Amino acid sequence: MRKQSYLTKLNFRDEKLCSVVKFSQHISQAQALLIVSRNRLENYEKEGVLKKLHYMDNNRKEIVYELTQEGRKWITHNFGHLQGNFYTSTTAIQHNITLAQQIIDRPYFKWYTERDLRELLIREIEQSDNRWELMRRFENGQISVPDGGYITSDGSIECIEITNENYTSGQIAAKERFGEITNIHITFIKQ
């Protein structure tokens, strides 16, 4: 017996929601409701694309949605142009929600995941005269990839790194080294 499909007649709002969670892994309920209706959001949960989570933020219980493994397959099947690397992070939910807001604020740009940027960095390192030294520094954490990036209206890439009060100067410097090697500007956004 075939499972009922809760998501039919996909539209641009569905594509936008799927794009945000592809590049951030989490989205707050409030952010999601700016894109789709409450009923549609519940259908994403019933379909198994998103999983509802509860977390505490400043002593307030908040609702957030997490992209599931099944959801990744569903997005790839229904929005072929969104296939490829999905954002995965073991960092805090609030970090990913802050990243989601950056994606929501830039809806018309093509986004890159951290993994996409890692691949770009490795290509740059491999073409460098001092590739062995750079690869050693990358493997030792002295060069670090930002959370995401997007192509701006002039065709250049701009990266985003979400920081918090626990970031050290060494961690910031490692991200800046990514920018130096790839010649890509990074905007640091405090969570």
What's the gyration radius in Å? Answer: 18 Å
What would you call the shape?
globular
Contiguous low-pLDDT stretches (5 residues minimum) are none
What would you call the structural class? alpha+beta
Largest sheet: 4 strands, mixed
Output the helix-strand order: HEHHEEHHEHHEEHE
The portion of residues assigned to helices is 40-55%
Q: With helices defined by DSSP (H or I, 4 residues minimum), what is the helix count?
A: 8
Q: How confident is the prediction overall: mean pLDDT?
A: 92
Q: Strand tally, please?
A: 7
Beta strand %: 15-25%
Distance between the termini: 46 Å
Name the strands of the widest sheet in spatial order: 4-5-6-7
In brief:
The protein is α+β, with helices and mostly antiparallel strands.
Give an account of the 3D structure.
The structure is a single chain. This protein is α+β, with helices and mostly antiparallel strands and 191 residues long. It has 8 helices and 7 strands; from the N terminus they run αβααββααβααββαβ. The strands form 2 sheets. Strands 4-5-6-7 form a 4-stranded mixed beta sheet, sandwiched between helices. A 3-stranded antiparallel beta sheet has the order 1-3-2. Helix content is 46%, strand content 20%. β2 and β3 form a beta hairpin. α1 (12-24) crosses α5 (93-105). The protein has helices at 12-24, 29-33, 38-47, 69-78, 93-105, 114-126, 131-139, 169-182, and strands spanning 26-28, 50-57, 60-67, 111-113, 148-151, 157-163, 185-190. The longest helix has 14 residues, at 169-182.
